[in-house]
Amino acid sequence: MTAALQIEGLSFAYGAKKALDSIAFQVEPGECTILLGPNGAGKSTLFALITRLYDAREGRIALCGYDVKRQSLQALAKLGVVFQQTTLDPDLSVTQNLRYHAALHGIGKKDADRRIQEELERLNMYERRGEKVRQLNGGHKRRVEIARALLHRPSLLLLDEPTVGLDVPSRQAIVKHVHDLVKQQNLAVLWATHLIDEIDADDSLVVLHKGQIKASGKLAEILQSTGWADPGQVFQKLTQSDKGGPA
Amino acid sequence: MRIVHYWRATAGIVGRELLRFLHQRERFVSALVRPLVWLFVFAAGFRAALGIAISPPYETYILYEVYITPGLLGMILLFNGMQSSLSMVYDREMGSMRMLMVCPLPRWFLLCSKLIAGTAVGVLQCYAFLGIAWLYDIQAPLPGYLWILPALVLGGMMLGALGLLLSSFIKQLENFAGVMNFVIFPLFFMSTALYPLWKIKESSPLLATLAEYNPFSQAVELIRFALYEQFNQWALVFTAAAFLLFIGAAILGYNPSKGMMVRKGGGD
């Protein structure tokens, strides 16, 4: 089976400052991988490279087998993204925002409207489709963004701290929805966060600190091999000092 | 299938820009107020101070308001181009630029579509301005209003491409004030928009040379001649060459491996 996301020997530097140092991991279809790391760990740089805002000079990123640098169009077609900041147009309605995204992916209007209905209904947002995005609260905006990221049926969903600034019920709803998608649609998810309570027992974990991977694998396996009690402890132990910890 | 995808994407980008424009009425009004103030106040006051001799494309003595109208159309396109680039910097800060860049189409194509969208808005503003100028008795021959369409499109694309190029250099929105001082004002005042070349030559031959080779001047002259159903070949070649130069540099600026984006650095 081809991995939804394959990262091999990836390094990146801003001038002399190294942001990522030879990292490697993969995300399989039907797998939710949590990318844990404190601020400045290199999460945003990694996301910028996967979404091809910059090109990596060292290493390789492949989406469903397509090299992001050499086969970028095929690779990007497989990718759905929810960025950290809201990227919806506040002056346009929910439907107008989603239709714009569908057009960028070459989806015709009829097909787009059908998919918009499907995705919004799944998130209980369909009846609010005519409202301007400005009128929605933070949680609802996030739901629309997730619906948008799924419109073109991607194989990999990238979520860059999507729950920052949301209240607890909204956060829980989004966490549950994404985990349901992984199970029901065999979607691969890479979720960057620093909120430990968003991690499910079945999830995989990649702990990034100062541009290096400090641990990666199934959460249960990491806990078993380290003897640490929970993901919080894993995060704390691996990101508070530069020593120790399995790689 | 691919061509349909390209077509839908361009239609989507242009449609979004027009929708945004319609929803932001204050933007439309302010885009019109600026040239109208120049026309009604500046030009009226300047009329006595500046006599315009007969020079092509004009075949008779003209009022200063008539002379300045193509220059003000250029001004609309210039400000619109810069406004588009401002919104690109804003979009990049807010992330929606990344949303565009992550869709599976070549980056040069997305930038060109964005440019077409911005130009469409600028051309609409120009026609609205011409409508008001018509009521103010500044009237060109009717076919001229059709002739200027390609001139407005090319001028708008050239100035928009310049804005796009600038937006690839500007890291933050705050730096945009510098664009006003170092790009918009010199381009506008050092041009044939407000005074004819021979008049500038009288006071400063150097300034006249700078004005002659200013791409904004050439875009204005292209529009001026077109409005009177005449074709200014030199202005067309110059404007088209400037467009190709600016768009080429802008595409390079947004290139993921070579562009300024890499040097600017990311979030963390």
TrEMBL record, chain A:
<dbReference type="Pfam" id="PF00005">
    <property type="entry name" value="ABC_tran"/>
</dbReference>
<dbReference type="InterPro" id="IPR027417">
    <property type="entry name" value="P-loop_NTPase"/>
</dbReference>
<dbReference type="InterPro" id="IPR003439">
    <property type="entry name" value="ABC_transporter-like_ATP-bd"/>
</dbReference>
<dbReference type="GO" id="GO:0005524">
    <property type="term" value="F:ATP binding"/>
</dbReference>
<dbReference type="InterPro" id="IPR022467">
    <property type="entry name" value="ABC_transprt_ATP-bd_su_PQQ"/>
</dbReference>
<protein>
    <submittedName>
        <fullName>ATP-binding cassette domain-containing protein</fullName>
    </submittedName>
</protein>
<feature type="domain" description="ABC transporter">
    <location>
        <begin position="5"/>
        <end position="235"/>
    </location>
</feature>
<keyword id="KW-0547">Nucleotide-binding</keyword>
<keyword id="KW-0067">ATP-binding</keyword>
<dbReference type="InterPro" id="IPR003593">
    <property type="entry name" value="AAA+_ATPase"/>
</dbReference>
UniProtKB/TrEMBL annotation, chain B:
<feature type="transmembrane region" description="Helical">
    <location>
        <begin position="67"/>
        <end position="90"/>
    </location>
</feature>
<keyword id="KW-0813">Transport</keyword>
<protein>
    <recommendedName>
        <fullName>Transport permease protein</fullName>
    </recommendedName>
</protein>
<dbReference type="InterPro" id="IPR047817">
    <property type="entry name" value="ABC2_TM_bact-type"/>
</dbReference>
<comment type="similarity">
    <text>Belongs to the ABC-2 integral membrane protein family.</text>
</comment>
<dbReference type="InterPro" id="IPR013525">
    <property type="entry name" value="ABC2_TM"/>
</dbReference>
<keyword id="KW-1003">Cell membrane</keyword>
<dbReference type="InterPro" id="IPR022403">
    <property type="entry name" value="Alc_ABC_transptr_permease"/>
</dbReference>
<dbReference type="InterPro" id="IPR000412">
    <property type="entry name" value="ABC_2_transport"/>
</dbReference>
<feature type="transmembrane region" description="Helical">
    <location>
        <begin position="142"/>
        <end position="166"/>
    </location>
</feature>
<keyword id="KW-0472">Membrane</keyword>
<keyword id="KW-1133">Transmembrane helix</keyword>
<dbReference type="Pfam" id="PF01061">
    <property type="entry name" value="ABC2_membrane"/>
</dbReference>
<feature type="transmembrane region" description="Helical">
    <location>
        <begin position="234"/>
        <end position="254"/>
    </location>
</feature>
<feature type="transmembrane region" description="Helical">
    <location>
        <begin position="111"/>
        <end position="136"/>
    </location>
</feature>
<feature type="transmembrane region" description="Helical">
    <location>
        <begin position="178"/>
        <end position="198"/>
    </location>
</feature>
<dbReference type="InterPro" id="IPR051328">
    <property type="entry name" value="T7SS_ABC-Transporter"/>
</dbReference>
<feature type="domain" description="ABC transmembrane type-2">
    <location>
        <begin position="26"/>
        <end position="257"/>
    </location>
</feature>
<feature type="transmembrane region" description="Helical">
    <location>
        <begin position="36"/>
        <end position="55"/>
    </location>
</feature>
<keyword id="KW-0812">Transmembrane</keyword>
